[in-house]
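Worked Example 4.2. Consider the chain below.
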Amino acid sequence: MKKILCFGDSNTYGFNPVDGSRYSNDIRWSGILKSKLRGKYKVVEAGCNNRTCFIDNPNGAEKTGYKALPKYLTPDFDILILAIGINDVQKFFSVTNTDIKTGIENLINISKNINPDIKIILVSPSVLSPSILNGYFSCQFDENSIKLSYEFSDIYKKVSEENNCIFLDLNKIVKTSEVDGLHYNKSEHRKIAEEIEKLIL
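Applying the procedure from the previous section yields the following structure tokens:
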């Protein structure tokens, strides 16, 4: 049976913006995808709260995307879903557009070094809502973070074209919750799962 790895941050993990809990298997998008593809693909979930893509996360290797990915991505995987990057625009890190492009390209290169034939679905995160400035995550994100979040779509699209990846722009199908401006409500997770299922099938 073919294998799919869902590698990402808290929105892959299934962070509930209302109470900070983890959405159950039947609510988070990677869990829904696992159920939808059962019998056709083996889906492995590898989401992690506050995981960065390319920044060396002060909380360790598990929360640093390029360091954690080889732990999960073995050569027997057929498809990799990369849904990561928004945490790199936290105000502490002061990244640029060039940093974002170089960072996601590095993650793709790591993936292809592990498995040159792997098919990659590159998922561009949704833009941050201004409500993030008034909520729990205001200590991590600022106005510049919001500005940079609008750049992901174009950057990821270009990177996908240059590296033969499948591109998915979440801005076209979902929006972040107004509760915290960063994570998704239940209904949005189902939309993500349904869209990714279409791409895979």
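The chain has a mean pLDDT of 97. Residues 82 and 145 are 20 Å apart (CA to CA). Compare this with Example 4.1 before moving on.
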